[in-house]
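Subject: mismatched residue count in predicted assembly?

I count 1410 residues in my input, but I want to confirm that the predicted structure covers every chain. Input:
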Amino acid sequence: MDLLEYQAKELFREMDIPVLPSQRIDRPTDLKGLKIPYPVVLKSQVRAGGRGKAGGVKFVENTIDAVAAAQTIFHLPIVGEYPEVLLAEAKYNADREFYLAVVLDASARRPILLGSKIGGIDAEAVMEQMQLVVVDGEFSPFYARRLALKMGLEGNLIQAVSDILEKMYQLFVQRDLDLVEINPLGVSATGEVMALDGKVTANDDAIARHPDLVKLVTKTSNRPKMNASIAQSSRMTEEKAAEGDFPMLTLHPARDGNIGVLCNGAGLLLTTLDLIYLAGGKPASFLNIGEAILQAWTPTVLCDRLERGLELITRDKNVEVLLINLHCHATAGDRMAVVIAEYWQKRASKARLPNDFKMILRLVSSEFSRAQESLKDCPVTIVENLEQAIHQTMGLVKSKA
Amino acid sequence: MDLLEYQAKELFREMDIPVLPSQRIDRPTDLKGLKIPYPVVLKSQVRAGGRGKAGGVKFVENTIDAVAAAQTIFHLPIVGEYPEVLLAEAKYNADREFYLAVVLDASARRPILLGSKIGGIDAEAVMEQMQLVVVDGEFSPFYARRLALKMGLEGNLIQAVSDILEKMYQLFVQRDLDLVEINPLGVSATGEVMALDGKVTANDDAIARHPDLVKLVTKTSNRPKMNASIAQSSRMTEEKAAEGDFPMLTLHPARDGNIGVLCNGAGLLLTTLDLIYLAGGKPASFLNIGEAILQAWTPTVLCDRLERGLELITRDKNVEVLLINLHCHATAGDRMAVVIAEYWQKRASKARLPNDFKMILRLVSSEFSRAQESLKDCPVTIVENLEQAIHQTMGLVKSKA
Amino acid sequence: MNFDPDTKVLVQGIVEPLGSVHAALMKEYGTNIVAGVSPGYGGQEVHGIPVFDLVEQAIPVMGAIDTSIIFVPPYELLDAALEAIAAGIRQIIIVTTGIPPLDMVQLVRQAEATDTLVVGPNCPGIIVPGKIMLGTHPGHLYLPGSVGIISCTGTLTYEIAYELTQAGIGQSIVVGIGSDAIVGSSFSQWLQMLDEDEHTEAIVIVGETGGNGAEETAAHYIAEAIDKPAIAYLAGQHTPQEKRRGHAATLIASKLSVKEGLTETDDWGAERKIQAFKQHKIPLADRPSTLIKLVKKALSARKK
Amino acid sequence: MNFDPDTKVLVQGIVEPLGSVHAALMKEYGTNIVAGVSPGYGGQEVHGIPVFDLVEQAIPVMGAIDTSIIFVPPYELLDAALEAIAAGIRQIIIVTTGIPPLDMVQLVRQAEATDTLVVGPNCPGIIVPGKIMLGTHPGHLYLPGSVGIISCTGTLTYEIAYELTQAGIGQSIVVGIGSDAIVGSSFSQWLQMLDEDEHTEAIVIVGETGGNGAEETAAHYIAEAIDKPAIAYLAGQHTPQEKRRGHAATLIASKLSVKEGLTETDDWGAERKIQAFKQHKIPLADRPSTLIKLVKKALSARKK
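Triage response: the counts match. Full output below for your records.
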């Protein structure tokens, strides 16, 4: 969960990381009560990058210009995202700009400090000077000085920059964050430093134990857009519901297809989709109802998720054939079959499924024969072999064509 | 630095350690605005122990009784200490009372958790059941459960008590404390727990990096009484001045004596006092101006401390003979001798020292002969050998008798 | 690596719904579950397994414990794992999912310092078919044999084992290392262990083209250090995916504002993973049935 | 223990007032101070000693460093010491005073994990007369010889060494372990080292009757494990002191509200310390001149 710039800066302020005087602007008229002297920078508060180049950042000299600029920015989408608020901030004359970040390195399995003597929007230039320090053991400020020296800093700037890094690291650890980034860190002619822009990403798994962070991010309602691509979806299918105990179900629509795919497990879903593509089929929507091993998922919970999943995927009117591929173990396969049978009867009787809607259940379970029994009155094909299930699915698709 | 009960409870509240509704009472009339329903407990806010037995805790049922009781408590000293404030607190019906503490164990060089299934004021009973867990590595809640089990707790009480211990430990570490103690922890019939009384001791060396703690303890002005005994003084001679950079000088008056002793270093001071006692002498006042190795003590600082020390010790009119015993190294001995010479001339010329006031300087320094030179116009005896210095001191004392 | 049938096993979080269900299933499979731990439940029994309040209480009663399988809620995981390590347990399997990554960083540090093997989190654990099951694998899908499987997926692990079993190919050991960003033990670590395992004749790597998994690293490690035949299956090779950033530290690249700069190549992450196996001439299957064929080929080549 | 004259020594906090003064004095004594560290001052020189911004920068230039002597301000001490340990330095002497005890707990944990010798804080360090001086000892008071001194005091350490020197008794090594509640190395640790040191023939313990010091523990340790003659001097034996609590963990006893209960005996802490030495028949002096006599006696008995 990415925080907006002004939210990140609230956290910076708490940690005594220097930021400019600023004010949140909810509507253009707020600028009449501005407490910061002009000139002022107005910045679109969106999560997408590239707002500067897109016109989402404007310098203004007086109230009239400011209100006009705010109106423009409020109506300017950045990569499809409209700002709900703007940030009005004092102007700063940076002599130089640095880049600093704290992030988790999955391969090192440690937090790392990143720094570049060049900051700002020219990513290539920033990267060229990028330096890295792995925080092996418990953090101590010398890790930050190590980075400052690798960045090529000298004299008082070593301490000034490592002080900022230390506070960024503390913020990172105290709030369980995925990322704390300052870009750029402005450096004045006299060697003072100032966080001019900041990015903070909360960790979805950890945020629930930081009520202050939950409060901060729920102040605004605009959420990051859902990326429909499967590359993301294999990780993003389940997103923690803010108040619920279990990950939400999210439907991923594909394009031009007519096959629905519902699996338990992301890898199993990918394999099933692969086999459909290899057989010449085209998915319409796909859904992962979750690995069987997810914490606290009692059989009841997985049955409930299957029922909700069926409802969700059959809402997609492009789905003509639905392939359900389940490995059932702790959750007995026959109970899942009962859920499918009940769902079918309920929906079919109410004519909420098209007459030619077809369903294939591929089930791996020690209760396979009991599952068969449960489904005997439903027009649901049940098979145990995966390739066979794909074959039958493709047969149904072709029979409809 | 011991915090008062109500200050400790402010910290408990911050950590979500359950405490009863309470209100600080600065004067008896405050009780007319009491927001807690009666019956209420009024507690004298002093650092000394034993206030309960001394009459510093009273249960009251209505405003009239409360005001009267408050007046009594405000005028009741506990071990010589008058309360500046009282705490009015709701009454709690505890089914059982436990004892819990987190403290540093100097021999284990680790924090330890202490707990007893018996809490309250009967120290012997508390101690009989006392259990201990050393926090060897980084803290994790299982250390707290380990203590709860050693205390003999079962069922839900294990988690309830270890939750409190975990928060106490966090408080201990986050604020660099010497002690966090809850005694008693009330346990209700339904297994709920409540911190009924609490003690928090801040660490004098660490408090400066916790501005919130500094703010909390400077809200009230009553300070712990200075213990004049040398057993304490060897550690308490220097007490950090709240605002200054260097430890304050504190004079320790002895009884019935007429010899002043000024040394640099606590051990050296003890040795010097021993030798005076062994020779049949009696100290009047003694003062440690600090180990030569104290952080950031440049020669200038030590000279300044010597000057202030001389002023302080000569204020004690019982001091007839002053023995100064100094090891000088980084701070050249001749500079110290100059300080003594100047002090002598200044004071003697202004007749602020009695005519028969005598001074012995025992100096170990590579600059001994230059120091001798500096003192040649002053009636200050300078020697290098310690036993000889004692001998001469005793000679001067006897010559005055 | 100690996965004999008589290895002593503990279940932490045994009163949790999943913990209770899987303790029973493991016991049924023949795993020597000697004790369960759930604070506040000491003295009770779950499926005939005695429950203790603290790990260290179980040891004087049951003797030294080899492995703990943990089912506690995610925010209690770090503490439970540290408790097991402090009690001297040196093999830990974490079924729990949703663990804050920084908790894993702390756990990994302590595991490294104490030479503790951590499997997971968010994983089905380990099965040695016919001998012992440590986790959530459905035992009836497995067959004793000589193929080792290392997988970073969940139910897909079961699928692959099941297809091998159906083809008459047994497994020496199957381990799900977990699919979270930070896992306790890596593909490479397990490749090493299976390379040394006398019961394993061929090793199967099961991964995904996308995701956090270190399949690419595994490919390089196989080429460098593994003597036994290794075969890989990556799910997602035929499913269109968005272009991904080409930096090794995926998690970094996906979050930094300057991520564009971190791009070394512009192709999919998928393509890079696939290329890593091709480059080192490691057989790579694009569907389970192909995997079976490749495994058969490797095993028969080895017999010659 | 590596205190040869050619041992390579670093001074952390060399631009601090005390650091600068004592770096010069140590160098003058012949200590091989190869570098100083003070962040922001890299590239400068102090008394001809090159200054680096970071410890790890000094090593490629100067080679492996044996000992670091730290003079940084108290709140920077933990970081400086951890920096030295991370750079591979395994002997650390902390002159700084006023260090928060919980910082010392962290440092002691890391020192134990890395087998690092930590002397201090709040200590004058180590001197091997005529060879090397690591700390703030006034070198001209010392004389090479065969008596080892372990002291938890400051200037009193100088006094005792000086009195021995005046009596013609030289010292093999003199160490001030520091007088804070939490110190990096204890009396017992040093007793062990001096017992093994071939240049030491007798060991002198210098302590106080009050205070935090573990003199009592030292007495028991001498009786149990030390073969060489040991003589103690405790300052304060004739100076009236308040009655103290008799629990071993003084720091605990002095703070708990239930401290009364912790009292095992009602006598002074002083009396208990004195009794510990008497009980084990360890010669105990009550004044420096007596100490000299006892040391002479021990040395001459050893020669027979």
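The longest helix of chain B spans residues 156-174. Marking this ticket as 'not a bug'.
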